[in-house]
Amino acid sequence: MSKLFVCDHPLITNKISMLRNKNTGSKEFRELVDEIGMLVCYESTRDIELINKTIETPLCETEGNITAKKIAVVPVLRAGIGMTNGILKLIPNAKVGHIGVYRDPNTLEPHEYYCKLPKDISDRIVFLVDPMLATGGTACMAINFLKNRKVKNIKFLCLISTPEGFGKINKEHNDVNVFTAAHDSELNDRGYIVPGLGDAGDRLFGTK
Length: 208
Description:
There is one protein chain. The radius of gyration is 17 Å and the shape is globular. The protein is α/β, with parallel strands linked by helices. 33% of the residues lie in helices and 32% in strands. The chain has helices at residues 10-20, 26-44, 81-90, 137-148, 163-172, 200-205; strands at 4-6, 50-56, 61-67, 71-77, 95-96, 98-103, 110-116, 125-129, 132-133, 153-161, 177-183, 186-187, 193-194. The mean pLDDT is 93. Helix 5 links the parallel strand 10 (153-161) and strand 11. 37% of the residues are buried.
């Protein structure tokens, strides 16, 4: 069964409140998405497996720890790009793939238009990132893309989630855990998260 982790650290909660504010401009919005993405990623890596390695300090040899598996970050275009740099600040050696999915404004159904992933994606822990987990359709389609390429270990990272979105992931991909900065109550009749923060992509790129 999928698990939902709400990263409610006071710093994250404060930044989410600033992000929700309709008067927050694109520059500050991008900076906040970057910062929150990094903090959510930090929380999502607590169970990363480590292996021992002997290292040499200026004084002596000692035992250190390094990550046992390589990592990839896969943003869902276009809004997922906003979270990617923050994650790469924590994990600079991660490879980056991209998945393009758009949601039909009338039917709310997701449609694929692009997918480019590292060749060794199946050997990596994959952080699939998209700011908004609304209906869950886009997330589940993106997870399908990864599983079709033999990816076994997927974590979904977002800024705002809903019961509907998490429920769909849990139903279709119950081996994928969700890490979010806030879990909102509902969707409106247009498929937008309430209270939410509006269209993340438009606010990131100034296209609203």
